[in-house]
Amino acid sequence: MKKHLPCIPHIITLGGLALAVVALMSVFAGDFQMAVRLSLLVLLVDRIDGTLARKLKSRERYPGTSGEILDIITDVVGLTFVPMMLFWHSGLFVAGTGTVLAIATTVAASWKYSRKDGFLTHGYSVGAPPIFFSVFLFYFLQLPPVYPTIYTAILILLVISPIKYPITSLVTTHWKPGYKSITNYLTAIFFVPVFLMLERTPSPIFWVMLAAIGTQLFIYPVLLSIRVIKPVFDRNA
Hints:
The protein is mostly helical.
């Protein structure tokens, strides 16, 4: 039994992919609340599977399966494509833009994930991390469609841009004390109330998350360029 423990993270990742498929089915069925909760569970899986795989040394002890590839597939499907389909079908975007945004985000995310190993080697990411799941903040805040539409369009441009970003928890799972893991810790703190209350969650929670993400998207690159933040990849877990 013990020799199969390194396979557990891969099973969890595949479970996240299965949740994403059921979430997509819920979108088509018009059950948006179920789709939201399932998508949040996919996010939870994404926060724990990689860390668990490193703890159990899955790459070394179970080399026949690539956890990195499984993770990328689940990320593209569960954290980009399915959420974008939810946003489109629930009317979050300006009318007529949903199709273009769903296609563009999925393509941009796939292209960005294909370059991830090189970024980790260099200690910085070229282009913003494909955090299209963050559009959920606008879904919960129930702002007019123009705001999530503009945010998503800007994020697509940042993802494919040549701007350099430091390696933080937006790029790859970080659980270290300090600025690099701020999004992970906020997600951990707020996950349960958001999962239980959804749109009834107090709005300051989403504004705090949006401020944290905005800081990492627009301020961190400047700090990296002036060497306040150094280009380094120093994840321990």
